[in-house]
Amino acid sequence: MSKPGPQNYGIPPPAYSETENLQEPLPTEPPVVFGPDPMNLICIACGNRTITDVRTTPNNRTHMIAMLLCIIGGLLCAWIPYCYKPCMTSRHYCSICNAYLGQYSD
């Protein structure tokens, strides 16, 4: 292995604008914004284009509203938030591989 000779010490390195191997940044897709309804997208787990399977589940807000309605209106009103879709969290799953993709809360 040979070391560079003294003749190379006086030459400055090329400026950044002179470099030839510049790489373009890879294009990125915007993040998916989930909604309350099924969506058509490409699954990040299996790579297939699919329409998501949406499952609604109660969240903390659902339980708090039910407790508030129970205190104000009695037990007969406590079930209402569990039947009202905007009080629930919509979880999106791939309809092919069943992978969790994201969620939406109102």
From TrEMBL:
Pfam families: zf-LITAF-like (PF10601)
InterPro entries according to UniProt: LITAF (IPR006629), LITAF_fam (IPR037519)
Main location: membrane
Domain LITAF, residue spans: 23-106
Membrane topology: Peripheral membrane protein
Location within or outside the cell: Endosome membrane; Late endosome membrane; Lysosome membrane
GO MF annotation, one: zinc ion binding
Residues spanning the membrane: 64-82
Keywords linked to the UniProt accession: Membrane, Metal-binding, Transmembrane, Transmembrane helix, Zinc
Cellular component terms (Gene Ontology): late endosome membrane; lysosomal membrane
Database matches in PROSITE patterns: LITAF
Cross-referenced PANTHER family: FI16615P1-RELATED (PTHR23292:SF14), LIPOPOLYSACCHARIDE-INDUCED TUMOR NECROSIS FACTOR-ALPHA FACTOR (PTHR23292)
Family: Belongs to the CDIP1/LITAF family.
Protein's name in the database: LITAF domain-containing protein
Organism of derivation: Ceutorhynchus assimilis (cabbage seed weevil)
